[in-house]
Amino acid sequence: MDDKYDCIVLGTGLKECIISGLMSVERKKVLHMDRNDFYGGESASLTLDQLFQRFTDGQKPPESLGSSRDYQIDLIPKFIMANGALVNMLVFTGVNRYLEFKKVDGSFVMRGGKVYKVPATDVEALKSSLMGFFQKRKCKNFFAFAQNYDDADPSTHKGFNIDETPIKDIFEYYGLDDNTVEFIGHAVALNKDDSYLTRPARETFDRMKLYADSLARYGSSPYLYPLYGLGELPQGFARLSAIYGGTYMLQKPIEEVVYNDEGRVCGVKSEGEVAACDFVVGDPSYFPDKVRQTGSVVRCICILNHPIPSTDNAESCQIIVPQRQAGRNSDIYISCVSYAHNVAAPGKWIVLVSTTVETDNPLKELEPGFALLGEIEARFPSKDGVFITTSYDATTHFETSCDDVFKVYRAITGHDIDFDNPPRPDQDDE
């Protein structure tokens, strides 16, 4: 490792692999290392044997679960917004060429212990059983206002300045009750808690637009999911980096991040050798002296032999349990994929339930989510400059992860990603 690198990336989680690929596209000399012998880091996809080895002290999976090689179980499963930032990056970089995707069947929300499909447009609002007759009309009018709001046309503003007016004031103007506000704010705008209510309305409008635009691309759901699991994503961006000259080293122990006399990073030490560099990017686990815990996420992987009840036999779906429904300060998220996505044995569903930890009994906090699943065959609970990516939050989509990538990219390069000018490799990868 005598060469000098522009950038050394530590860890092969999705965010680190995206950054590695983008830096390589910028024609920076990139070295990418990981202490593990597999891609994905904390967001890896595991076989059934690997899952049992990780969570059960080496117990063997029961034969009833099927063949280990039929499984690719995400440790931190998230869905991709069909019109969101990750899709933009996949298309911009051409990584979408290496992957196949399947539409997620539906998005649902819990109300009073029951599961309902999430309405995302004024037309769907009129058909939804989530609301009574009068609330449907009011919700339809609110959706129409949000969809038709045009900065350049004051006639669409109804006297509101959405950059200053809190969204709660607009909810009140349209007469939306607490239940209607709940599903709009948490299941459509995808806020994690109620703090958004006092922030400017544009934030909620932008989130609603992302949901509606994503829904419009494929119909019944705004989400996509890659066949063979999320582990395919970091490998796709690693391939992009390699096309542009990036170097990858797996199963490479990281002994030390090296700094010069001025306190600036200058290299990474591994197996007694130092690879010199201008800057380092890595996940938090490589920088224990530079990060602090600001919260915890509890996740539980469940294997079912049936679809989640009340989801119309969906092969895949998302369910959000809003904080108020669970008597909590933050939402509970449920994501479900299945054998239809080549991540489980035939007739099996993989469900992950997650939330932000609020008590000293994290697993108990997931019980409102478990109650929606029916019989569970197996359960695996777990917890969750130098430019350091943040840990993955409890949400079931990639928008917050992409925001983190954008911040790191901007900090390193001094500019935003120009999505109007996608990269062109010197020669196509065959």
From TrEMBL:
<dbReference type="InterPro" id="IPR036188">
    <property type="entry name" value="FAD/NAD-bd_sf"/>
</dbReference>
<dbReference type="GO" id="GO:0015031">
    <property type="term" value="P:protein transport"/>
</dbReference>
<dbReference type="InterPro" id="IPR018203">
    <property type="entry name" value="GDP_dissociation_inhibitor"/>
</dbReference>
<protein>
    <recommendedName>
        <fullName>Rab GDP dissociation inhibitor</fullName>
    </recommendedName>
</protein>
<dbReference type="GO" id="GO:0016192">
    <property type="term" value="P:vesicle-mediated transport"/>
</dbReference>
<dbReference type="GO" id="GO:0007264">
    <property type="term" value="P:small GTPase-mediated signal transduction"/>
</dbReference>
<dbReference type="InterPro" id="IPR000806">
    <property type="entry name" value="RabGDI"/>
</dbReference>
<dbReference type="GO" id="GO:0005093">
    <property type="term" value="F:Rab GDP-dissociation inhibitor activity"/>
</dbReference>
<dbReference type="GO" id="GO:0005737">
    <property type="term" value="C:cytoplasm"/>
</dbReference>
<comment type="similarity">
    <text>Belongs to the Rab GDI family.</text>
</comment>
<dbReference type="Pfam" id="PF00996">
    <property type="entry name" value="GDI"/>
</dbReference>
